[in-house]
Design goal:
The complex is a heterodimer of chains A (about 200) and B (about 230). With about 200 residues, chain A is mainly alpha-helical. Chain A is built from ten helices and no strands. Chain A folds into two domains: about 10-110 and about 185-205, no CATH class; about 120-180, Orthogonal Bundle (Arc Repressor Mutant, subunit A), CATH 1.10.10. Chain A is elongated and about 55 Å long. Chain B has about 230 residues and is of the alpha+beta class. Chain B has two domains: about 5-70; about 115-225, Immunoglobulins (Immunoglobulin-like, Sandwich), CATH 2.60.40. The chains are: A mainly alpha (about 200), B alpha+beta (about 230). At the A-B interface, helix 2, helix 4, helix 6, helix 7 and helix 8 of A face helix 2, helix 3 and helix 4 of B. The structure holds zinc ion. Zinc ion binds near residues 7, 35, 39, 41 and 42 of chain B. Zinc ion binds near residues 7, 10, 35 and 42 of chain B.
């Protein structure tokens, strides 16, 4: 089973500057790149630069370059561009901290998304989910997410299997999704609405 | 068209959770990212797990801050006016990064660890050490505390009151602790919120000003162990 988002029509529309497709492109890949960069513990400012450079390069390839060979794997293409940007950023930083040119400014819609990751409403829902957990499970999550304690040590001290952490997060996440946090749904809703709009266009063309 | 990894296998193996928990090997992370970039469902799943993790972290940080404030307040009330200046607080100078990475609470008791009298402080997260005077112990006393502990209380026996006190903690600079008025022999309890401290040795020194010179009251190595 696959849930493809991209195809040649999407890429064509993005290349042509269709506003709806462009909005989807920015929203989807801002979220994707934010997750990717956060998982590498890249600080917010540097991540913003990498995201902006990545999206700029992708649009440049589409609009003034050779385009993409495989539109169905457009996401993987964006991912590979980001990987290159990260590699170059690393090399550039190693050569000289101040070297390099700034990419042209393109609207960065990522800032609000980053800032809105943690909200009081989401925290309230998460706090409720945490409070309903058995004390031991709550403590495990506290050690994982707040103390960032060593996983093996958590398992040893609290006498749990490594898989238990995943199961805990999986269940908590499911409850978080089911709770339907308003703010938490914003991005998903934008994605789904745009994807539906896109799907409609594809099927009716 | 394939997206590399199989979507159903990803869901079955809870790969998004592994990703958020940092359990994937670098090449597994790359493969998963390549899939997520093209898969709306995995993307939403991953975003939800990430969002839960970020907000859970914030909830726990808020709790730790509230706990520190409450215990500080309670200790301040119970310690009376002997050290009115000792308004327990988080010292900005000690904050390295993030929320409440490190806070130092200072409060005074009469030979009693106030931690035990504060109900909000769960006993399993507090650990107390009596720091011996330098003449008896030398500089080498090690107070080992696991990073999983939220607090470590360092107790200093005061043979006499001083006009003012100051402490220093490696990497966090010095902070003055000024006495409001003199009193008889007491115990000074310094509570360090250690959960945000980096593992390793942190030298802690306490000294008192007797009006003419700084007298070393005690020092120890606060050893933060990664997983004790
Ligand atoms: Zn998938």
């Amino acid at each position: 089973m696959e849930f493809r988002t991209f195809d040649s029509e999407y890429v064509k529309r993005l290349t042509a500057g269709d506003p709806e497709t462009e909005a989807h492109f920015h929203t989807y890949f801002t979220q994707f790149l934010s997750l990717k960069l956060r998982s590498r513990r890249i600080d917010a400012d540097a991540a913003g630069d990498v995201r902006q450079e990545t999206l700029y390069r992708v649009l440049k390839v589409l609009r003034v370059g050779n385009g993409v060979a495989n539109p169905e794997r457009f996401g993987a293409f964006v991912n590979s561009v980001c990987r290159n940007v990260l590699l170059e950023t690393g090399r550039k930083a190693a050569r000289s901290p101040d070297a390099g040119e700034d990419p042209p400014e393109i609207p960065d819609r990522t800032i609000d998304l980053e800032r809105s990751l943690i909200t009081s409403e989401r925290k309230r829902v998460v706090a409720k989910i945490l409070d309903e957990l058995p004390a031991k499970d709550r403590e495990i999550l506290r050690m994982v997410f707040f103390e960032e304690a060593d996983r093996d040590e958590i398992c040893r001290r609290l006498n749990v299997e490594p898989g238990h952490l995943r199961v805990l997060l999986h269940r908590a996440k499911a409850r978080f999704q089911a709770a339907g946090v308003r703010g938490g749904r914003i991005v998903s809703q934008i994605l789904m609405v745009l994807c539906n709009g896109f799907t409609t266009n594809v099927t009716t063309r | 068209m394939s997206m590399g990894l199989d979507h159903d296998a990803i869901i079955r193996s809870q790969t998004p959770e592994k990703y958020v928990l940092g359990e994937l090997l670098p090449h597994e992370r790359e493969e998963f990212e390549e899939h997520v970039a093209d898969c709306t469902i995995c993307m939403q799943d991953l975003a939800a797990a990430d969002m839960f993790a970020a907000n859970a972290s914030a909830v726990f940080a808020d709790e730790a801050a509230a706990l520190a404030n409450k215990s500080a307040k309670a200790a301040g009330e119970k310690s009376g006016s002997w050290f009115d200046f000792l308004r327990p607080r988080a010292f900005p100078v000690l904050a390295f990064s993030g929320v409440l990475n490190l806070a130092l609470l200072v409060f005074v008791g009469y030979g009693v660890t106030r931690m035990a009298t504060v109900p909000e402080l769960r006993p399993e997260v507090a650990e107390a050490f009596t720091v011996r005077p330098p003449a008896r112990s030398g500089p080498g006393q090690v107070c080992a505390v696991g990073r999983s502990r939220s607090f470590a209380t360092l107790q200093f026996d005061l043979s006499r009151p001083y006009q003012r006190y100051s402490y220093s903690l490696d990497g966090a600079g010095q902070s003055p602790v000024n006495a409001a008025r003199a009193s008889g022999s007491e115990t000074l309890n310094l509570t360090v919120l250690v959960s945000g401290l980096k593992p390793g040795d942190h030298k802690f020194e306490l000294s008192g000003w007797d009006g003419q010179r700084n007298v070393e009251i005690g020092e120890c190595i606060l050893r933060v162990e990664p997983g004790k």
